[in-house]
Model the fold of this input.
Amino acid sequence: MDLGFDIRKSYGEFRIDVSLSLNEDLLVLFGPSGAGKTLILKMISGIVRPDEGSVIIGTEKVFDSKTGVEKPIRERRIGYLFQDYALFPHMTVFENIAYGVNAKQGGADAKVKELISLTRLTGLEARYPRELSGGQKQRCALARTLASEPRVLLLDEPFSALDYQVREKLRADLLRIHDAYPITTILVTHDLEEAFMLGRRIAVINNGRIEQAGLREDVFYRPATRDVARFIGTRNIFTGTVAGLGDGQVIITNPDLGVIKAFMPEGRGPAIGSEVSFCIRPEEILVIRPDKVLDSRVQDNIIEGEIVSATGKGSTQSLFLKVGKGDTLLKVELPNFVVRKLTLAIGRVIRVSLKRENIWVINR
Done:
């Protein structure tokens, strides 16, 4: 079911002004705390009334400030999954899910059993919420929401209160359930890993406005603004002057990085002499082994730097290299086994390659 919204609301100096359309996608609404993510869900669902604009589900306008249309929450057929589960404590798992089934649909028992199987709750049908783990409660709440056959599903940071292992399983569950029930879904999160795993499409919101929306690969690897690059974890964001254009590339000079060659699609090129921002994700940077001959893929953009700090992140490590004569730091993210194999430690000077196809030039 298609969903389109163009809504605005002011709270003092803070203003929400967003417009987006999607079909049976799973869209992640991603951004920092206080950006307005939850408020957008509440305006779509009808919990909060926009000051102006419209919300359209399929071909039906459920809100339109110009014509005075304002469907009540119960008539919008929107499923809203809150952070706190909101299960009925006096009902069993089976009864909680059955509560969501529309009596007119018929076959309630079969529907509930199907959802119990889909959400991995088999064997827990007779338990009460107090007898469930956090992950089980969340799956039960999701099953109850799906039981009402909503046209749109809104998920407000549904996994934020759960531990890491449980969150991982539930993310995989959500993708599997969305394949089985391809409902137009918006999931709110400020967790970068969650956004990357779940977001087939991602909308990055900042200060009440959507700065970029599109396919995951476009948003993560081709950010439209410096803020988007910052929010999605592109730690390496630099400024330079355009020194040359042509042959599908742009040449940029930076005081600490030197001359940088970056891939530039035809028609996107900035003017020579203009100042631009450019970025590269930490995991896209290659460490050059001193005992290896450079091949053609890594001969451009060779940077030398001293490792000044290292931070472990589970299976990876983040190394920070001090480059040039200033205070410029380059973040490199590598698997632990690579760090051990190359004996990369604080104080060591290494060379890295910034492949030109992995560098993205931000036009604005």
About this structure: The two ends are 34 Å apart (CA to CA). The CA atoms of residues 245 and 251 lie 6 Å apart.
